Amino acid sequence: MNNSRKDRIMPEHSAAEPEAKQDLPAPTKDIKNLIYSLRGRHVMLDRDIAALYGVKPIRLREQVHRNIDRFPEDFMFRLTKTEVDLMVSQNAIPSRQHLGGSLPFAFTEQGVASLSAVLRSEKAVETHIKIMRAFVDMRHFIEQNAMIFSRIYSLEERQKAFETETGANFEKVFNALGKASYIPKQGIFYRGQIFDAYVFISKLIRSANKSIVLIDNYIDESVLTLLDKRKKGVDACIYTKHISKNFTLDLKKHNRQYAPVKVEVFREAHDRFLIIDKKDIYHIGASLKDLGKSGPPFQNSKRIRSICYNNWGNE
Fold first, then answer.
1. Looking at CB atoms within 10 Å, which of 52, 150, 202, 226 has the fewest?
2. For 43-102, what is each residue's pLDDT tens digit?
3. Rg from Cα positions in the chain
4. Residue closest to 37 by CA, chosen among 134, 110, 128, 108
5. Could you tell me whether strands 211-215 and 235-240 are parallel, antiparallel, or unpaired per DSSP bridges?
6. Helix/strand/coil for 40
7. SS3 of 46, please?
8. How many whole angstroms separate alpha carbon 305 and alpha carbon 74?
9. pTM above 0.85, yes or no
10. Cα–Cα distance between 139 and 109 in angstroms, integer?
11. SS3 235
12. Angstrom distance (rounded) from CA 149 to CA 155
């Protein structure tokens, strides 16, 4: 006898085991409602079978345990917690407590047939016949409606695909709405529009995904603060004609605490440029620290892009 198999079927004693109903066996149409589809098979749970036979579930398990060789894996298996939760979610059973506190055993049609050999009584014979007829009726029903089930499954799959595509499209729309507002290619900040200019440059800096290059001959610690608004992992480099001792000290303190900014001397530039990801290049009429104070224009054009690429685009 398979002892390991016996160990798995040993009944779990519970004081809450209810008495089986005595007005059974039930009609065949009611038994059909006790047949479930699990692991690709039609099965009945031990508690339902015990109720139909008029015995306690623990007694049914004891008989199975004594005759375990009659119940191989394809005749009987124990449900997992996941399978029980699935049955609860589908209202196949009201709750896990309905099972008496232990994971139930499921019997296939062959397993139920084997039970007839270990549960012997006049009532057991009548009940067994009704259960077998219920399984047969279930098979006939599935065979006769196979085309309908296939169409339903096809519709469900198409519905899932549609929902997935629709969800992806909604996500694109929401992502677009969530991004920064449109950044103009050119414009003018009038005197006093300091905050507007600050917001504009902040959006430009946040739009970078890989790198930021600033060419500006007049910089201070406020420029470092602006560059700190860039995304994580985005490189930042400043080219300027002169690096003062005070700014050198500010830069060292900044780079100890925040993502480092690289600063190099470049004396051949007279205008201000901001290059985003080596592709979007803005010509700015004033230094970043002075934006909005004197109404400078900004511009993003192909001509400027070609000029800047020749000098700094490959940095």
1. 150
2. 888 888 888 888 888 888 888 888 888 888 889 998 888 888 888 887 777 777 666 667
3. 38
4. 108
5. parallel
6. coil
7. helix
8. 72
9. no
10. 11
11. strand
12. 10
How are strands ordered across the β-sheet holding 105-108? 36-38, 41-45, 105-108, 76-78
Q: Comparing C-alpha atoms, which of 103, 69, 62 is closest to residue 85? A: 103
Convert the pLDDT of each residue in 138-159 to its tens digit: 777 666 766 776 677 677 777 7
Can you read off the two tokens belonging to residue 254? 């900044």
Residues 6+ apart with CB under 8 A from 105: 9, 45, 46, 61, 64, 76, 77, 78, 79
Pairs from 44-47 (Cβ < 8 Å, separation ≥ 24): 44/106, 44/107, 44/112, 44/131, 45/79, 45/99, 45/104, 45/105, 45/106, 45/107, 46/104, 46/105, 46/106, 46/107, 47/99, 47/100, 47/104
Query: What are the beta bridge partners of residue 275?
Result: 213, 281
Cα separation, 282 vs 264, whole angstroms: 20
Residue 73 CA to its chain's centroid (Å): 34
- For residues 303 and 285, the answer to whether their CB atoms sit within 8 Å is no
